[in-house]
Amino acid sequence: MPNFRGYQQQDAHEFMRYLLDHLHLELQGGFNGVSRSAILQENSTLSASNKCCINGASTVVTAIFGGILQNEVNCLICGTESRKFDPFLDLSLDIPSQFRSKRSKNQENGPVCSLRDCLRSFTDLEELDETELYMCHKCKKKQKSTKKFWIQKLPKVLCLHLKRFHWTAYLRNKVDTYVEFPLRGLDMKCYLLEPENSGPESCLYDLAAVVVHHGSGVGSGHYTAYATHEGRWFHFNDSTVTLTDEETVVKAKAYILFYVEHQAKAGSDKL
Asked: pTM for the full model?
């Protein structure tokens, strides 16, 4: 991985996406001599419910991490609705602005920012500003519009990236807000496009791993991780691995969260 050689500080999320994207592309190259165009043509005939491909055919990467978003845009002038399905390997979530000055769970009175707040902010109806005018095919010009995301298909492993680094006029600053997250039973049903078609436990997820950034900015600091194995939690700090507990894990200022489908938990170590 030439982009990540050397000793310069790298971003864990960028590395994860680089790894998954390139692994996916490498795996696509091993289809027993079948041409890429033939794979793409065959894949284009799949229904949206069965198709979850990033740049072509499905692989083990998309089978594990792949989900589908529905992007719904409505013109505020004529009411025309546009829908587009987008595959994803992870979801990048903003930390709502009202929580960004709160750095710890008990720093001040008032509610603590939760993972649900971040998910709600991601899926809430949003009115696009003047810089993002929608090209309405009925009005035949750019118009004001609203946008909303729905999850059409959930993955086996749900990867949630909290956007802790934001550009200001000159600097990329870190958002050091504590975000509360569940260890078990993360319910994604209310974010689904068709929740009535999901089973009682098919939308529940249990935490498998957390990546944490320590430091003040993207260009400095250190990454560590927590992961669970056979009911016990471990802390990974470079080559040092130590046993830890749930109380320590839930206090972490998460950067990337990996949730495993509840019904697949018994085999989660194999994913």
From this structure: 0.82
